[in-house]
# Entry
Amino acid sequence: MTPIPTPAELHDATRQLALLARVGYPLSEGLQAMGESSPWLAGVGEAMVRGDTLTEAVGRHPRVFSPFYAAMVEAAEASEEPAPLMARLSEWLERSDSVRRRVRNALFHPWLILNCLGLQLIVMLTLVVPGVLIPLAAAAGHPFPAGLSGLLESGLVPAFLLVALVALNLAVLRDGPATAAVSTWLPWAGPLRQLADQALWARALGSLLAAGVELPRALRQAASVVLSPSVRQELGRVLERVDRGSTLAEALAESPLLDSHLAWSAAAGDEREELACQMLDAAESLDQQVERRTEHSLRMAGPWALGAVGLLVALGLVAFWAPFYNSLGAMP
# Structure
């Protein structure tokens, strides 16, 4: 199985390809040579040795290269001047990594609180409930149901919660669809994630249109960079409207979820070249919005996180000591 590169590795490789293209070095030979030192590129180099074109070789590894990436490589390979297209792809990867880092930073404090709550619940189910609450309830004449007490005393429930918490943390750290799904649960992080995905989509769409890709195909390929399920679903509806004959501006304007700046920018560009520029300008505007919202979230998250952690500690202390006070009060 082909190893999955980190965003930094993919960006560095793309930037090197752009530099090679700028000095006139063929993209296929450049990528084949780079595959000798990068394990995740070795499969691409091997496919090209067997006679595949660069586009075909990249398309054989969808886990490594998104449809958007493959489309940009295809356009660059067919172009007489591939360097600007590869440079634009490298810039998109850099912006993508930057935007997603901002979203991860905004999620840090809420995720810390969620982990504290999960660990507190595990400690309660491991120590307090079987060691304190179940014996006190039995002594007071109100025992837990036999099946429930047996399940709690077995330790299976806290073990399951611990495994689930670790698995969820590993999934979120990868910054994939699981992160996007979790962020939608948080009232301030969900809109930020959706806005960031729209910024990345607008930049991807503008880059594809500037590379000469037709609008319907560009819409399909640009949607591959979106992680938020709600935004991806809404962009699918936009594509359906365009396929039925609507303009891009009309299709975007009908969507209540997508930022209105996208529809305004699409309405300002009639020709493909103008539309590409307008979508890139829209991406810049949305990037700035993401940056401002992230800074605001980080300023507000600190005090809220401290307050929430303090509340969790207080609840844990109350849950631990309340049974003792109740048992003392019940004594004759």
The chain has a mean pLDDT of 78.
